[in-house]
Write a sequence for this structure.
């Protein structure tokens, strides 16, 4: 997902008896679906895990602007360009909502950006793949944003107030992203044979990385179990992946495109699609920094930060000058 | 690589078109109030969400303490007669 394999720093799930009175009261509130707000007492591991999860999510939104930004100047029409520009601007906004939510947990914005720019922080594996053709913009909106929505909708109900509120805002804006992607795919799929081939090629390349977004099976992960108990993770990775496949396959069929998985078939007994094995070696390679675009993404991010420095300095100088004038007037 | 000082945090309040009060929508960093309003427009009103923006430095907000939530609010708990539903109005009277 936009936050993948988030560690909780714990090695087993505490029973209620093992908990301190504060921890027990906290867990009772979470169990009763009472939202946890910034200044309230919370276990240190909850706070740290949330910072990791929310900041990873925020970094993904920020880095996620790059693959799509690549096509702003090359969009096929002025309308498509305006739409893509608005979508990329939304991603920036989503990153900002999430950074704000993370900051309520006592981490500073500068620390978060430093972690991103130094390569220390992780972001979603999906953004390390290149956008080679215009059809990739369609595939990203349809598949990548579709997968993100699958995860973000349940997170609107998560236990931490500021994160839940950020998710509500984001979900409201996100469905435009998925629809505009599908709209691009529809246009291409109904176009010339070359255009349809381009759409198929984009699906071929984005299908498996999209399934990887949900992360490896976490059925036996103590971290996922703890996060679910804290209600900062609502569904298991496998559950969400299955839901995504079930929802997306008919959409691909409607486009007349073929999902690149020989093992994909409807299982009437389960009421779900069966699908082939994901290549997790590739996933681990990408999150270890060896995906097709990891270095380029980070380089671009640092360059943007450095080249914006003079703007930040000018804004600082202007604010200081105005404040000094106001003070002189008051004296 | 970090800038020497972090911009202050501003809390953002937006009034929507329908005559409701300003509502807290989130926060952002900016060097001064003017920039905070400009940034708030881009971050929080990309879809016509508002007709008016307030920004307040987060450090200027005083808040009630979560640990005193009990004593602070319990005076209201025992006063159900402040709600209209406390009173029974005979059905033959119709709507009141």
């Amino acid at each position: 997902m936009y936050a993948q394999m988030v560690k909780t720093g714990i090695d087993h799930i505490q029973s209620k008896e093992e908990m301190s009175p504060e921890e027990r009261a906290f867990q009772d509130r979470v169990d009763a679906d009472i939202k946890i707000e910034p200044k309230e007492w919370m276990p240190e591991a909850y706070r740290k895990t949330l910072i990791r999860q929310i900041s990873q999510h925020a970094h993904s939104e920020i880095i996620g602007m790059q693959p799509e930004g690549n096509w702003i100047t090359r969009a096929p029409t002025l309308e498509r360009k305006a739409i893509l520009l608005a979508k990329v601007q939304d991603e920036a906004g989503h990153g900002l909502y999430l950074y704000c939510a993370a900051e309520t947990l006592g981490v500073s914005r500068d620390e978060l950006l430093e972690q991103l720019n130094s390569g220390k922080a992780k972001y979603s594996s999906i953004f390390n793949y290149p956008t080679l053709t215009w059809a990739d913009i369609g595939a990203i909106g349809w598949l990548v944003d579709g997968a993100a929505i699958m995860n973000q909708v349940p997170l609107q109900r998560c236990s931490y107030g500021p994160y839940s509120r950020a998710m509500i805002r984001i979900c409201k804006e996100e469905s435009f992203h998925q629809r505009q992607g599908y709209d691009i795919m529809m246009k291409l799929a109904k176009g010339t044979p070359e255009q349809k081939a381009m759409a198929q090629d984009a699906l071929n390349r984005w299908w498996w990385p999209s399934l990887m977004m949900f992360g490896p099976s976490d059925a036996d992960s103590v971290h996922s179990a703890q996060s679910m108990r804290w209600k900062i993770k609502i569904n298991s990775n496998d559950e969400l992946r299955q839901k995504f496949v079930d929802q997306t396959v008919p959409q691909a069929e409607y486009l007349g495109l073929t999902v690149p998985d020989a093992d994909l078939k409807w299982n009437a007994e389960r009421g779900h699609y069966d699908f082939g094995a994901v290549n997790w070696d590739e996933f681990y390679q990408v999150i270890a920094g060896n995906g097709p675009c990891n270095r380029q993404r980070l380089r671009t991010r640092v360059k943007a930060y450095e080249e914006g420095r003079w703007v930040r300095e000018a804004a600082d100088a202007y604010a200081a000058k105005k404040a000094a004038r106001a003070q002189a007037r008051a004296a | 690589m970090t800038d020497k000082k972090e911009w202050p945090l501003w809390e953002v309040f937006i009034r929507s078109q329908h005559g409701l009060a300003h509502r807290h929508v989130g926060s952002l960093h900016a060097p001064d109030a003017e920039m905070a309003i400009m940034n708030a427009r881009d971050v929080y009103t990309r879809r016509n969400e508002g007709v008016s923006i307030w920004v307040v430095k987060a450090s200027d907000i005083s808040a009630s303490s979560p640990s005193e939530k009990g004593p602070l609010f319990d005076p209201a708990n025992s006063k159900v007669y402040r709600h209209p539903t406390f009173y029974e109005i005979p059905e033959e009277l119709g709507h009141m």
About this structure: Chain A has a mean pLDDT of 95.
